[in-house]
Amino acid sequence: DPDSGDNGLLLYSLVNNQMNEFDIDENTGQIFTVSVAGKVETINLEVQATDQGIRKLTAQTTVTVTIDSSSSNNIVTVVLNQKINVVERNIPEVKRLLEDKLTWKIYVIDVHSNEFERKARSSTDVTYMKIIAFDEENQEVSAEDLKRKLREQNSDIEMELEKIFATSVTAAIEEPPAESATPELIATIVLSVLLVCTLAVFLAYIILTIKRKRYKYLIKKQAEIVEGIDNPCAADKNGSLKGLRKPKCTND
Question: Cadherin domain spans which residues (predicted)?
């Protein structure tokens, strides 16, 4: 809008209540996602610009958004210690900086904070910026290569970001949380532990039983030997003497 003053001040909005999936920065007109997880489709957004003159004038246009999940594995999230509204105002400069340092074409897929309420978007000092890179052959750069180069250039990137935001900036790579064990895996581990414990108890029982039987056998043999020594004339069940044959026994 070439007008000056309030007549040239534009505020942007989405028409037809499309706030569930997308939102728009009313000052810059930048569109970003709110929740499109699991969707693969093309959506037409009606965007309206309104000036702030006494007789407000409006204009509308259609923005076509294509949601494609094929690139999801190569998207990398960069965490900036800046408020989301500050980051959104400087997206073009941040994008050019990353392209210069990484030597790839960079696209900013999404910018969000932990707070999804629009009214609270300037209250969090942490912003998550999802990016994807394409090489000179217009092929997607793998997430691992993108992360590697971001780490290699981290010091230079942070130094240039300080110039853009006029304050100290940290840019870290968000790593996905470790996958928690599934209920099936937990059940398998528990059953395996119980099985091992059961086998250990069973083996201990067998060993203890064998030792007891051996101990009783030794006690019995020892008693028989002692009985034979005390009564050398005693005969065993086969009729043979248990004790020494000499000296001979005489009956009183």
Answer: 1-94
